[in-house]
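User: I need a structural model of Transcriptional regulator GlxA family with amidase domain from Donghicola tyrosinivorans for a docking pre-check later this week. Nothing fancy, just the predicted C-alpha cells so I can convert them on my end. Input:
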Amino acid sequence: MQFSANFMQIWKSSDATRTVGILLFDAFSNLCLANAVEPLRAANTLSGKPLYRWSFLSLDGDGVVSSSGLPVQPHAALGHERGDYLFVMPSYRFKTHATSACHLGLRAARSRYRTLVGMDMGSWLLASSGLLDGHTATIHWDELVHFAETFPAVHVTEDRFVLDSPIMSCGGATTTFELVLKLIEQHHGPMLALEVSALFMFGEKASWFDPQMKATRAGKLRMAAALMRRNIEVPVAIPDLAQRIGLPEKSLSKLCNEAYGFGPARLYQAIRLREARRLCLNTGFSVEEISARCGYLNASALTRAFKKEFGIAPRELRITEREVK
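Assistant: Understood. Predicted C-alpha cells for Transcriptional regulator GlxA family with amidase domain:
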C-alpha cells in the first residue's frame, strides 16, 4: 500500500461531524458513560475540529440516575433524534428495562441511526428487541452464557468488542473505551487514536485484571508505543525497544506496518513530533527547549521535521493559534 507524503496529517478539512446518541437508563454505569464520551471529546480537542457531537437520551426524555446516584437530564427522548451511532447503555437492572416500550423504541431507532451499539449490557436490550438475530455480538462476561442460552439466534462471542456493522457491541466499561477508540481509528486514522489513548494513559501497562492482553498483537503494539511516549527526550533504539517488549525487531516492524503503514522508527518520530506540538501549543517553552525535550539535536532539526509532518513550522503554529483565540 502506498501512502502520500502527508499521510500523517490525518485531519482533513472535509471531515464531517459524526453524531452519536447515548441512550441511558436508570442504573447506568458512570464509568461506561465516561469511557464512551471522553474519547470522543478528546478526539475533538486534539484535532481542533468538531469530529463528534453527542446527545444524551432516555426513552421518554425524563431524567435518569446512574448506579452511583449521578442524575442526568437527557437532551431529548429517543424518538426525537437520529444520527450515525446510537450507544445503548443500560448497565445494571437491564432486564427490567427490556419492556415493550423499549423494544418499540429500539426497533424504530434502527431506521434513524446508521449503527446501533450495545455497550455493557446493551446487547441484551438489542437482542430482546430482535435486532441481533443473525449478528455476532458480545456482552458483559458475567452474562455471556445466559445471553447465549436466551438468544440462540445471536452468534455470541467472548471477544472484547464486536464491529459487526450495522450492529456493534462490547462487554463492559473498559471495552467501551476500546470500541470507541477503534471507531476513532477507523474514522480518522491510527495516529489520532494513538494520541487519544496516550491522553488517558491507555496501554501504558498490561491491565492487572487481564494479563493476557500483554500477549496479544495489539497489546504488544500498545506497549511499544507506551515505551516510546515515556522516552521522548532520549529515544530508545528500536532494537532495544523491541527486546524490552519481548518481540523480534522484524515482528515489531511488521506489526507497525500493518497498523500504521510505516515502521517503528517512523511511529517513534510521529509520537515525538506530537509531543512537540503539544508543548508548542500549551507551554511557553522556546522552540530550542522543545527540540531538546523531544529528542532533536537543535531547533532547526525539529522545525524541518515539524513542518514536513504538519505543514507548518512551530513558531508559525503559535502565531496562528494566537490569532484564532
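Before docking, keep this in mind: The mean pLDDT is 88.
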